[in-house]
Write a structure and sequence with these properties.
- This protein has two domains: 151 residues, Glutaredoxin (3-Layer(aba) Sandwich); 46 residues, Antioxidant, Horf6, Chain A, domain2 (Antioxidant, Horf6, Chain A, domain 2), CATH 3.30.1020.
- The strands form three sheets. A five-stranded mixed beta sheet has the order 5-4-3-6-7, covered by helices on one side.
- Strand 3, helix 2 and strand 4 form a beta-alpha-beta unit.
- The chain contains six helices and ten strands.
- 31% of the residues lie in helices and 21% in strands.
Length: 221
């Protein structure tokens, strides 16, 4: 039996949901004090990592840094977070630059009091009570949460998939179409299915649309 929690109960779990406003915050970062509001008007990828000076997290920071120019072309910024001090963040960022030749240009939140992590439901007590999981929140220019991705501590993220999701969301916003599995920019997109029998009758013969059946049609854009 499925039990639907009231909104008040769901909200108390500290787990933001897709389509809701991103929780506002002000935090100390490697770029000084920043607020979520400072990113209004641009997209933002807010992501957490378990800890500084750890190998999987280091590979992710290198990968995020390499993807940063692509994200900026999409009007999207990056912001990291972990339950470490700003001094630890600075030392680690400098260490990555020294050892891997990669400059980390995006800010990293020092969330020692777990304030932002709690707002965003980044701590999974079943995995760790002292570290944040590998969470990704994609937030649009109106500061609405558009996508949420969680990874366990042991599994590094696919950064190119995060870039792909942002491209898909932005294209959907622009064209009002959906994206099929494994979609890449330039590939056909899904036309929303008709909602009446009359619309279904004319959909299959509609110009510019490739239909497998009345409910499954694609358009090349």
């Amino acid at each position: 039996m499925n039990v639907e929690l009231p909104d008040t109960v769901a909200a108390s779990t500290g787990m933001p949901r897709i389509g809701e406003p991103a929780p506002a915050f002000e935090a100390e970062t490697t770029h000084g004090t920043l607020r979520l509001e400072d990113f209004k008007g641009s997209w933002l990828v807010l992501f957490s990592h378990p800890a500084d000076f750890t190998p999987v997290c280091t590979t992710e920071f290198v990968a995020f840094s390499k993807a940063h120019p692509k994200l900026r072309k999409l009007g999207c910024e990056l912001m990291g977070l972990s339950i470490d001090s700003v001094y630890s963040h600075i030392a680690w960022v400098r260490n990555i630059e020294k050892n891997f030749g990669v400059e980390i240009e995006f800010p990293v939140i020092a969330d020692l009091n777990k304030e932002v992590a709690s707002l965003y439901g980044m701590i999974m007590p079943g995995e760790s009570k002292t570290e944040t999981s590998r969470c990704v929140f994609i937030i649009d220019g109106q500061q609405t949460i558009r996508a949420i991705i969680y990874y366990p501590l042991t599994t590094g993220r696919n950064i190119e998939e995060i870039v792909r999701v942002i491209k898909a969301l932005q294209t959907t916003d622009q064209l009002g179409l959906a994206t099929p599995a494994d979609w890449q920019p330039g590939e056909p997109m899904i036309v929303p299915p008709p909602s009446t029998q009359e619309q279904a009758a004319v959909r299959v013969g509609e110009a510019g649309i490739d239909c497998t059946d009345w409910y499954f049609c694609k358009r090349t854009v």
